[in-house]
Amino acid sequence: MHIPRQLLGDGGSAASPATSAVKAVVAHFIVGFTISYSQADWLNDITQASAMGIDAFALNFGSDPWQPNQIANAYAAAAAHGSSFKLFLSFDMTSIPCASAGDAANIGHALNQYASHPSQFWYKDRPYTSTFGGERCTFGTGDVNSGWTSAVRNGVSTPYSFVPGFFTDPNTFGSYPVVDGEFNWNGAWPMSGSDETFDSDGSYIASDNGKLFMAAASPWFFAHYPWKNEVFRSSDWLWNTRWDQIIAHRDQVDIVEIVTWNDYSESHYIGPVTAAASPPGGTYWQNGYDHQGWLNMVPYYAQAFKTGANPTISTDHIYIWSRPHPADATACCDGIGKPANAQWESDNLWAVVFASSTGTVTLTSGSNVQSFEVPAGVTKLQVPSAPGGIRGTLTRLGAAVVDVNPGAAFTYTLTPQQYNYNAFVAWA
């Protein structure tokens, strides 16, 4: 969107222990894919995220012994950036052990290490931390609440706002007085063949007794490994629809966590596909599939979430995206097989138009060509997919003002070699 950062204001973003955030937008960052990162690589990502209205990275990390060094690099890079951009620890409890008092002490040590760091994210006058999972962790105590109390309260010198992403029935939240709020990770997708709604978030909000609520927003989901081979429904402008829902309920949402900045393994990255990144072996579907068009929409939606008012669009943009083959296609040479839930998807070229004034948009997917009159503002469009290339053009008075034409970089085919349910995103 190229909205200058200074025009967005601070949105109430947390900048120091003396500042309480009103609303914030953060992005989930997989530290496990950064084994080759330098501090300069971290700085590049931080600089780009900050320019897009993102306030912090949630540093998702596991048990690999090299990851603490990369976390230190990230904090050093954020401090060197010299802006209000912050970081916080998000403990990946699918990797980090949580069976003993020593495991709890390790978590407390990490929290103590960064509580007073100048780049630590604070919210509501306290440093902030989260998790992915952890709803079964007892740390050698008799129950989950006691376990997490020993990890994030006992021995932790500065009280944190603890907002974990527990995968549990929201009606059980009353059993965890240690938590200061909840993160609804799975709220980012419909988790069925239906369209996305705010219903699951409503269940969390109704059950958390006024505690903090962090909503998730994600543009996509596809993973294709022998151990994880599945699709979540991402059709029908999931990215934009999800933001619209969150903004409509902004009075009930404190923080939005974008899922994710760099998880190439699950295809929901919005950051750059960097040469330094190291996703799992066999991750081929991100090659040539840049998603930064989705990132460039963030300033608009982040400002609307933080302020409650949609920004005025002064520059025209078209964003288009498509899968490379039909949902029911059969790949000739794929040894893993079709992913679960593929039938949830529809076959379209999706487009979102950010228009400064009325105009005509023409969308092309192979032989399917359709034109639409669009007003000023944000408009969602689609055309059925057909074999061939894709294109989107905005014209006024017979002249093209925006033309998105990836050319040979993308071709929709009916006969794929391998399954690829990732999205190719193009924009101008």
Automatic annotation (TrEMBL):
This is Glycoside hydrolase family 71 protein. Pfam families: Glyco_hydro_71. It comes from the Eukaryota. Keywords: Hydrolase. It comes from Punctularia strigosozonata (strain HHB-11173) (White-rot fungus). CDD domains: GH71 (cd11577). InterPro entries: Glyco_hydro_71. GO terms for molecular function: glucan endo-1,3-alpha-glucosidase activity.
